[in-house]
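Project outcomes to date are best conveyed with an example. Our students and postdoctoral researchers have been running inverse folding experiments weekly, and each run begins with a structure described purely in tokens. The record below, which covers 426 residues, was selected by the lab manager from last quarter's runs and is presented without edits.
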């Protein structure tokens, strides 16, 4: 620490958080490490509420708390402003509506000291809280099980996906990586640092308390396709293009996870685009998927079976192999789905019933390969075998559907032929 005035600099962008700033600061005052070993950089980014006045109370009381006020330019510029003034050996980031548990900074810095030459970034546990109650723990902690250094070239670590600011990094002064002024700036920042050594440190002591109750946060207000699609796609295209050959599995995992959660939250499809622009956007999505290993999709711990096969359909490379006893979906020499029967879901609408063959096996088939029969006679059915129509972009729209009169349903036996092999429908 000889070359640094502090052990750690804590960077806190501040914008209209008068309800939260005291909790944030108290979490730093309550750290097990001596408070004067920390440099607290409060960057007031043009707040219009009482945030600046509340921050000034701490800056006037403590010599190691520094308040800077600047015009509003966003969190990235606020963090960059702080980086130019950081005098700590290590740099922590803390959003002003979040907090950290008491043992966090001491534990992370102590671990970082022990692996300083191996890694440039150490992460620690982050838990989302809504109305002061923890939500589901992130799937990355199925991989990050204990304190240590994790090799990001190892495919089994592809789902660590460090995208948030629960990180501690070395202060490299003029060589510090700076934040871009795009959405997903946290993600890009972490990727740029990690790719230097392709290793990440993890400390299992401490916790970043991520407050999702703040309805005015950027995540709550600006993460919709019309705000984020273009910048997200450009970020991921540039990332993939920076690898002339195979994209490392870790970075595949970063991009696929973004696709996955946005589809689940109805924030993925750029429905604000139309015509040729819509088609172009879908080609960009499929181009990124084509550079991913099937395992990146198949092995993801938080993707549903239905969505897994939807993404595999878009990626391409799956085939349906069926015998009289079994229907299989195979990809890259692996059997990823095996069925011995098919089920029919039904929805009654007045005097007719809408029937749906709700199985992801049909994502990998064309209509010409499927024949549906009622009591041995072929019947008409709708089957959308494209994913680039904005009217039918929900994965469930890709299932075969047909209509029958409700009053004859009880006397009907349905079968389906796939590649000329017949199967009874339950």
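After processing, the design step wrote out the following sequence:
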């Amino acid at each position: 620490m000889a070359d640094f005035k502090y052990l750690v600099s804590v960077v806190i962008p501040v914008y209209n958080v008068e309800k939260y700033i005291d909790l944030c600061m108290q979490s730093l005052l309550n750290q097990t490490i001596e408070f004067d070993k920390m440099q607290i950089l409060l960057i007031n980014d043009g707040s219009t509420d009482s945030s600046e006045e509340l921050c000034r109370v701490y800056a006037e009381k403590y010599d190691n708390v520094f308040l800077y006020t600047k015009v509003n330019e966003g969190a990235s510029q606020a963090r960059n402003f702080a980086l130019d003034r950081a005098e700590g050996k290590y740099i922590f980031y803390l959003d002003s509506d979040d907090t950290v548990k008491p043992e966090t900074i001491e534990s992370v810095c102590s671990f970082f000291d022990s692996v300083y030459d191996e890694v440039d970034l150490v992460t620690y546990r982050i838990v989302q809280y809504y109305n002061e109650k923890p939500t589901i723990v992130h799937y990355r902690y199925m991989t990050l099980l204990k304190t240590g250094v994790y090799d990001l070239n190892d495919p089994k670590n592809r789902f660590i996906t460090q995208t948030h600011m629960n990180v501690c990094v070395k202060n490299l002064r003029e060589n510090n990586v700076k934040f871009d002024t795009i959405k997903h700036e946290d993600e890009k920042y972490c990727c740029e640092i990690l790719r230097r050594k392709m290793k990440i440190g993890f400390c299992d002591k401490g916790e970043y308390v991520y407050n999702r109750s703040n309805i005015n946060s950027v995540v709550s207000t600006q993460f919709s396709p019309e705000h984020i699609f273009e910048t997200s796609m450009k970020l991921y295209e540039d990332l993939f293009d920076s690898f002339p050959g195979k994209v490392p599995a870790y970075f595949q995992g970063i991009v696929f996870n973004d696709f996955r959660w946005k589809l689940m939250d109805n924030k993925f499809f750029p429905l604000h685009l139309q015509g040729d622009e819509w088609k172009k956007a879908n080609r960009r999505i499929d181009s990124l998927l084509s550079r991913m290993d099937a395992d990146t999709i198949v092995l993801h711990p938080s993707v549903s079976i239905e969505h897994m096969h939807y993404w595999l359909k878009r990626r391409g490379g799956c085939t349906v192999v069926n015998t009289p006893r079994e229907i299989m979906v195979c990809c890259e020499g692996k059997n990823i789905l095996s069925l011995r029967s098919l089920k029919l879901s039904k929805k009654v609408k007045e005097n007719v019933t809408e029937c749906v063959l709700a199985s992801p096996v049909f994502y990998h088939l064309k209509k010409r390969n499927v024949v549906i029969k009622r009591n041995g006679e072929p019947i008409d059915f709708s089957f959308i075998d494209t994913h680039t129509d904005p009217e039918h972009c929900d994965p469930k729209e890709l299932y075969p559907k047909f209509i029958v009169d409700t009053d004859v349903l009880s006397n009907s036996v349905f079968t389906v032929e796939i590649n000329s092999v017949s199967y009874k429908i339950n």
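The chain is about 30% helix and 25% strand. Residues 225-241 form the longest helix (17 residues). The training component of this project remains on track.
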